[in-house]
Write a structure and sequence with these properties.
Chain A: Keywords: Amino-acid transport, ATP-binding, Cell membrane, Membrane, Nucleotide-binding, Translocase, Transport. The structure holds 2 protein chains of 2 kinds. By secondary structure, chain A is of the alpha/beta class. Chain A has helices spanning about 45-50, 75-80, 100-110, 115-125, 145-155, 175-190, 200-205, 225-230, 235-245, 250-255, 280-290, 320-330, and strands spanning about 1-15, 15-30, 35, 60-65, 65-70, 85, 160-165, 195-200, 210-215, 220-225, 265-275, 295-305, 305-315, 335-345. The chains are: A alpha/beta, B mainly alpha.
Chain lengths: ~350, ~220
């Protein structure tokens, strides 16, 4: 539905050129919700604006719904934009128009008759749960309600694609989840393909099917959401995950963590359980079969859509042979084992 | 005060209102598009034309920098060409209008500049043409700021019109100078000043009321 190939964007600001995007390839399949996550300044916002050409790529191709966007003339581009809805972090509603008139705006722009506009706007307002607010002004609404109006407005021209630019970043957690639910309903009921950018793992976790990680203008990961949460491929991916799970090793532990093992140390490991391993009683078996004691320093179980993910930071207590055996045992059970460091015995 | 004096004051009040109304109207009709043009032709704006923008900006600045009294005298040939005479109320309207156009334009440009860039972006994402963005988004959304600007313009025109006496334009300022100052008639001076104050208050209150009515923020 959306296909970016080799898209680059360079801002020429006098002497220094800024590479906002570096040959980005991105495919979003029809009917899916695709998230792009990254830190601020990574190029997310430029990326999403290249899809409807609010930003024109310096090079590369952008195909939406079979149309090569970069080759369209102004009028054809405006027609193509009618098929691409967009919502924003700060809603961007017109303050001097009522809720009804805001949703009607894209239809007015298309030259649709008043009666037909009414027939389209009222059911949309009902769908986003604001049927009773048609005559109010945006200033009378809460943030979540404003975003609902913006969603109705974006859907007015019956788009096949919806772009969400940090759509929940200005909202509190509760409102965020209600807006995400609405987006999921729209995706499921209307079959609209959604591309969203965010810096919140929560958003990716709750509604995305696929996720891309963007860093410094490059897409460094592009995977199923389940895989991203269980086995991120890059350090940045792991950082995002750890932040999200709040499973960084405690400060007190980090302070006495040594890089190299010695006769008198125990390894500290981070274990990631996913899929079948979650339900296996591995730790008690580990103790029995390998003769090590396991001291759990931190642990967490998360369910990411249909998958369960367990994470644990633990100290493996035993002799060098036993701990090595324990690590081999864990590795042979499709567990992701990462040695964080070593601590002195009896420390 | 004699009834002849009262007639003079009434006539002067009407002259001032006439000059302010006509020059206010024409300068709005011409200054509004100029202000919009100054805004939309900025670099990275919807009709980005940096060279045209700079040209317009320089012309506007020149218009803003010539002192009104000098402008009035300097364009006398142009005034005569336009209204057939260089003295009287109609002749005063020409320099008043010319002085007000760049003034209005800058205030409109400022009002548009106050709008969130996100509004234009949203409209572009909807497939709006530049013209649609101007009349469906920019002007309606900046309505409050535009009315504020026009109110400031009217008030400024009231005070500029006081100088119209220099070309025999009449009006309250002229009356105040000729009768109140030159002929040592403090009563006339007082009346003209009071009427001017009331007039300015009335314009300002009307403007404030319209802004309140249009503002939904």
């Amino acid at each position: 539905m959306i296909e970016l190939s080799n898209v680059s964007k360079i801002y020429d600001s006098g002497q220094s050129a800024v590479h906002a995007l570096r040959s980005v390839d991105l495919k979003v399949a029809k009917g899916t919700i695709h998230g792009v996550i990254g830190l601020s300044g990574a190029g997310k916002s430029t990326l999403i604006r290249c899809v409807n050409l609010l930003e024109r790529p310096s090079s590369g191709s952008v195909i939406v719904d079979g149309q090569e966007m970069t080759r369209l003339d102004t009028q054809a581009l405006n027609r193509a934009r009618h098929r691409i809805g967009m919502i924003f972090q700060h809603f961007n509603l017109l303050t001097t128009r009522t809720v009804y008139a805001n949703v009607a705006l894209p239809l007015e722009l298309m030259g649709i008759k008043r009666q037909a506009i009414k027939a389209r706007v009222l059911p949309l307002l009902d769908m986003v749960g604001l049927g009773d607010k048609a005559k109010q002004y945006p200033s009378q609404l809460s943030g979540g309600q404003k975003q609902r109006v913006a969603i109705a407005r974006a859907l007015a021209s019956k788009p096949s694609v919806l772009l969400c630019d940090e759509a929940t970043s200005a909202l509190d957690p509760q409102t965020t989840s209600s807006i995400l639910e609405l987006l999921r309903d729209i995706n499921q009921q209307l079959g609209i393909t959604i591309l969203l950018i965010t810096h919140e793992m929560e958003v990716v976790k709750s509604i995305c099917h696929r996720v891309s990680l963007i860093s410094n203008g490059e897409l460094v990961e592009d995977t199923e959401v389940g895989d991203f949460f269980t086995a991120p491929q890059t350090q940045l991916g792991r950082d995002f995950l750890n932040d999200f799970l709040q499973l960084a090793p405690p400060k007190e532990l980090l302070a006495r963590l040594l890089d190299a093992p010695s006769e008198t140390t125990h390894p500290v490991v981070r274990l990631t359980f996913s899929g079948d391993t979650v339900s296996t009683p591995l730790i008690s078996r580990l103790a029995r079969e390998c003769g090590v004691d396991v001291s759990i320093l931190q642990a967490k179980v998360e369910s990411i859509q249909e998958r369960t993910l367990g994470l644990m930071i633990a100290e493996l207590m035993g002799g060098a042979d036993e701990t090595q055996k324990a690590m081999d045992y864990l590795a042979s059970h499709q567990l992701d084992v990462e040695v964080l460091g070593h601590v002195q015995r009896n420390a | 005060m004699s009834s002849a004096m009262l007639d003079l004051i009434l006539q002067a009040t009407l002259d001032t209102l006439y000059m302010v109304a006509v020059s206010g109207l024409i300068s709005t009709l011409l200054g509004l598009p100029l202000g919009v043009l100054l805004y939309v032709t900025r670099p990275r704006q919807i009709l980005s034309r940096p060279l045209l923008n700079q040209g317009l900006s320089i012309i506007t600045n020149i218009g803003r920098s010539v002192p009104f009294i000098i402008l009035m005298v300097a364009i006398i040939p142009f005034t005569r060409m336009l209204v057939g005479t260089s003295i009287g109320t109609n002749a005063a309207i020409v320099p008043l209008t010319i002085a007000a156009i760049p003034f209005v334009a800058r205030l409109i440009e400022g009002a548009l500049n106050e709008l969130s860039p996100g509004l234009v972006e949203a409209a572009q994402a909807m497939g709006a043409s530049p013209w649609q963005i101007i009349y469906k988004v920019l002007i309606p959304e900046a309505r409050g700021g535009i009315i504020t600007g026009l109110t400031i313009t009217l008030v400024t025109l009231v005070s500029y019109s006081a100088m119209a006496g220099a070309v025999g334009g009449g009006g309250l300022g002229d009356l105040g100078i000729r009768y109140g100052y030159n002929r040592f008639n403090p009563t006339v001076m007082l009346y003209t000043v009071i009427i001017l104050i009331v007039m300015v208050q009335a314009f300002q209150s009307l403007g404030d009321y319209l802004v309140r009515k249009s503002d939904r923020k």
